[in-house]
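Lab notebook, design round three. We kept the backbone fixed and only want residue identities now. Task for the bench partner: fill in a sequence for the structure below.
Input structure tokens:
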């Protein structure tokens, strides 16, 4: 029951992070830059498997059912299946990627950073593939990957740092 509550909170956090967006001109980007990837990385690392996936699916369901949780308070089937669909599918693949690597790597900053970097690149790859439904490969890369690379690096670094702080805090709490 507590895992379901955490998943609901995580889904709401994804929706809130979607509203933290920087809009770019359509000539530069197919979508705005959001805080979702940062929150997704944290959810995938902190929640136990398969609850991270359940959190993401709850987020999708809330948006498809009409709650304004997608970027710019969008919702509905069209909001889900538009330009963002590939990235959304990438969320699931990235969470699975983090789960697999977390079992094999030590919980230190560098391995976590690498996990998060790989997960972010997976999201961008799926986003790129999703945009191919609407445009050619060069434009999909130019508008769906390139504008997000610098932000992805920043989000990966911040997420890895937050996980390091979280781990240290948990260790301190366990000592008491």
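Proposed sequence:
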């Amino acid at each position: 029951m507590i895992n379901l509550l955490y998943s609901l909170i995580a889904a709401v956090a994804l929706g809130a992070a979607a509203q933290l967006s920087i809009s770019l001109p359509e000539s530069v980007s197919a979508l705005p830059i959001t805080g979702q990837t940062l929150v997704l990385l944290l959810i995938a690392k902190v929640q136990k498997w398969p609850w991270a996936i359940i959190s993401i699916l709850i987020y999708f369901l809330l948006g498809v059912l009409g709650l304004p949780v997608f970027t710019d308070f969008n919702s509905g089937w069209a909001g889900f299946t538009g330009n963002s669909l590939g990235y959304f599918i990438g969320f699931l693949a990235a969470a699975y990627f983090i789960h697999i690597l977390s079992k094999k790597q030590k919980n230190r900053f560098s391995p976590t950073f690498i996990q998060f970097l790989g997960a972010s690149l997976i999201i961008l790859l799926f986003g790129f593939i999703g945009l191919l439904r609407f445009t050619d490969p060069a434009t999909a890369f130019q508008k769906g990957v390139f504008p997000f690379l610098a932000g992805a690096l920043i989000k990966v670094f911040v997420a890895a740092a937050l996980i390091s702080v979280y781990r240290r805090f948990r260790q301190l709490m366990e000592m008491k």
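Keep this in mind before ordering anything: DSSP finds eight helices and two strands in the chain.
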